[in-house]
Amino acid sequence: MASISPGIPHPRPELADELEYQHGFGNECESEALPGALPVGLRSPQRPAYGLYAEQLSGTAFTAPRASNRRNWLYRIRPSVKHGKFETAPDGLLRTGPIRDAHTPAAQLRWNPFPIPAKPTDWVDGLVTLGANGDAQMQLGVGIHLYLANESMTDRFFFNADGELLIVPQQGRLRLHTECGVLQAAPGEIAVVPRGMVFRIVLLDGPSRGYVCENYGQAFTLPERGLVGSDGFANERDFMTPVAAFEDREGDLELMTKYCGRLFACRIDHSPLDVVAWWGNNVPYKYDLARFAVINTVSVDHPDPSIFTVLSSCSHTPGVANADFVIFPPRWQVATDTFRPPPYHRNIMSEFMGLIHGAYESRPEGFLPGGATLHNCMLPHGPAAEVHEKASRARLEPTYLDNTLAFMFESRYVIQPTKHALQAPELQADYADCWAPLPKHFMGRPKRGPR
Ligand code: FE2
């Protein structure tokens, strides 16, 4: 059995939940909620213990290389095929790549925080797509959503066939009841649910808001460390996977799915979270971003933000991500003789950013917790004018950058904003004005005048 070690001292005790977890990333886990529910020595006994059904959930093709192969074996009260007929359901503001209801503007975009609706809205109903790229049916690209919810899912369950879900809470703790068990994520933590896994979300603190990266592509994994060595960045042991927990519940319940870009719903007469035991590596997990071991310069210059990559979904080109999840956490800044904030740049990759709390160093005004920015391929961006002025004159003492937690979903594919995102009143018409005051500092003169 994989080690279960809930006793790791928590760097932020206020985030510690009382649930039991297994630790590690990508390793084989196993768990049983009833003793002897897991078969030993074979996957599919003729008659599983407790009258359970054995079922596989694949996260990769059967023939994927062993190092990247993901699958689970679930031992459940009823097989997941037992449900009513799916009918199309209203999509609300949920969209899927390719987005065809708007054109991608050649503009830097920034949004104020979107409000949480007053009418009853659960996590699925509260999904609002800001943008997407690639093509979900081709398993390329990502969808980028907000969730704006005020109601728990009790009799409703959901699975996403279009991709894995990386959930980034910004306000309110979430408790995710999944086929593999229960996990909790607070602002400052993330949760990831594999493609196809059924779950429901309970809001522990009432109205809740956060971000979602729906990863159509290859599942997120940990980036290589290269010359840094065997430790640092996001360490494997800090990823936490739940232990088996099942619901033996019957009633008039609803199962929803997002399938090829549309929502579907059906009736189901029992809870599909009825997995009594499971083993495998295609698992949901949580991760506390405070455990990210930042590695940065101790001499000069501002390294590329790739040093802050927590998770990466590879594209078919080595080193080029379908999507990276990057964070900008509290950290020391010690570079000497250096302009310390992010430099002005144009990036072939497209960058969507959100802010969990505090302020973002490069643009502390106008980018608010719960808000967002989008800097697509080749569109220049960098510090606001006053940040450049201040950082150009700052005394370069060691300083601790505190009260900040921003993140980025970065993708090789241009992120197409939705029509809703482009027409929303939260879109800031004056965003680019933050660079307008940048003065001309140039003092040089040509050695010769024009002939
Ligand atoms: Fe950037």
Describe this structure in words.
It is a single chain. This protein has helices spanning 385-393, 419-423; strands at 21-23, 29-32, 53-58, 71-76, 87-89, 109-111, 127-132, 142-149, 156-160, 164-171, 174-178, 181-185, 189-193, 199-203, 208-215, 239-242, 250-259, 262-270, 275-280, 285-288, 309-314, 321-328, 331-333, 350-358, 372-375, 399-401, 404-411, 416-417. It is mostly beta strands and 451 residues long. The chain folds into two domains: 13-289, Jelly Rolls; 292-435, Jelly Rolls (Sandwich). Strands 1-16-20-13-10-15-8-7-28 form a nine-stranded antiparallel β-sheet. The protein has a six-stranded antiparallel β-sheet with strand order 6-25-24-27-22-21, with no helix packed on it. It starts with 20 loop residues before the first strand and ends in a 28-residue tail after the last helix. Fe (ii) ion (FE2) binds at residues 345, 347, 351, 375, 381.
Outline the secondary-structure elements.
Elements: E1 21-23, E2 29-32, E3 53-58, E4 71-76, E5 87-89, E6 109-111, E7 127-132, E8 142-149, E9 156-160, E10 164-171, E11 174-178, E12 181-185, E13 189-193, E14 199-203, E15 208-215, E16 239-242, E17 250-259, E18 262-270, E19 275-280, E20 285-288, E21 309-314, E22 321-328, E23 331-333, E24 350-358, E25 372-375, H1 385-393, E26 399-401, E27 404-411, E28 416-417, H2 419-423
Parallel strand pairs: 9-17
Antiparallel strand pairs: 1-16, 2-19, 3-4, 4-19, 5-18, 6-25, 7-8, 7-28, 8-15, 10-13, 10-15, 11-12, 11-14, 13-20, 16-20, 17-18, 21-22, 22-27, 23-26, 24-25, 24-27
Descriptors for this entry?
about 450 residues; mainly beta; Jelly Rolls; 2 domains; 9-stranded antiparallel sheet; 2 helices; 28 strands; about 5% helix; globular; disordered N terminus
